[in-house]
Amino acid sequence: MHVAVQAPEVLTASKVKLCYGATVAVDDASLSVRRGEVIAITGQSGSGKSSLLYCLAGVLPVSAGEVWFEGSLLEELDDEELCALRRERFGFVFQYGELLPELTVEENTALPLRLAGRRKGEALALAGDVLRRLGLDSVRDRRPSQVSGGQSQRVAVARALIHRPGVVFADEPTGSLDSANANTVLEEFLMLARAQGTAVVLVTHDKAVAARADTRYVMSDGVLVREVDS
Ligand SMILES: Nc1ncnc2c1ncn2[C@@H]1O[C@H](COP(=O)(O)OP(=O)(O)OP(=O)(O)O)[C@@H](O)[C@H]1O
Ligand SMILES: [Mg+2]
């Protein structure tokens, strides 16, 4: 759709396998994502989508295969380097937003910048800007328990993108929303990601959501297959 075919690859997985004991959750999965590209992974419950995402994001070590991010092989990084990479170059959106309840909307949004060492005033000012873009200015001083489900998802989107990560991993980012709200949140998410060249790996059950991506994959019993557009 929007992505330049020649944009550089930011994340590449080659023959990734993940086993939980005797269960093979991911079986020789290979994919690559370019700068600004949005890829969607669909598939039935239990097919291995979240497991693959955890491998790509360095949350779980692969049982076999390789994951490369911007020239680094994740497996070769030590814990400190991997944590720094996840904190500074990756963004995450989860199914239920997972905001910190004791922080305000604005503080939640600013968190990745604070963890990267930015000064509080500067981080909050940038958070304020992103929240304004997402129409959340009026709720910036509230706690997550005092905002709606859709607002909470948009805060999660703001937080995932604020530090301009190389890639955002989103596992059913609109899973808890009705379809109208899901659409709005998704549009904003993709618009912001594309505007700053962030690659997006989007896991979804929803074919309509997947249709918005540049590239689609389907997972079935741990096997990942790229869909060819007809
Ligand atoms: N921690 C674990 N220990 C053992 N087996 C697991 C674990 N997590 C997941 N599994 C199994 O691995 C397989 C893949 O699970 P995964 O969570 O990746 O699926 P999914 O495609 O994300 O499903 P859903 O759409 O329901 O979120 C399933 O058979 C699941 O039961
Ligand atoms: Mg899952």
List the helices and strands and how they pair.
Elements: E1 9-20, E2 23-34, E3 38-43, H1 49-56, E4 64-69, E5 72-73, H2 79-89, E6 90-93, H3 105-115, H4 120-133, H5 149-161, E7 167-171, H6 179-195, E8 199-203, H7 207-210, E9 215-220, E10 223-226
Parallel strand pairs: 3-8, 3-9, 6-7, 7-8
Antiparallel strand pairs: 1-2, 1-4, 4-5, 9-10
Helix pairs in contact: 3-4, 3-5, 5-6
Magnesium ion binds next to α1.
Write a brief caption for the model.
This protein has 230 residues and is of the alpha/beta class. The chain has seven helices and ten strands. The strands form two sheets. It has a six-stranded mixed sheet, sandwiched between helices.
Task: Report what the structure shows.
The chain has 230 residues and is α/β, with parallel strands linked by helices. Helix 5 (149-161) runs parallel beside helix 6. 34% of the residues lie in helices and 27% in strands. The model has no long low-confidence stretch (mean pLDDT 92). The two termini are 14 Å apart. The radius of gyration is 17 Å and the shape is globular. The strands form 2 sheets. It has a 6-stranded mixed sheet, with helices on both faces. Bound molecules: adenosine-5'-triphosphate and magnesium ion. The site of adenosine-5'-triphosphate has 11 residues, from strand 2 and helix 1. Magnesium ion binds at residues 49-50, 171.
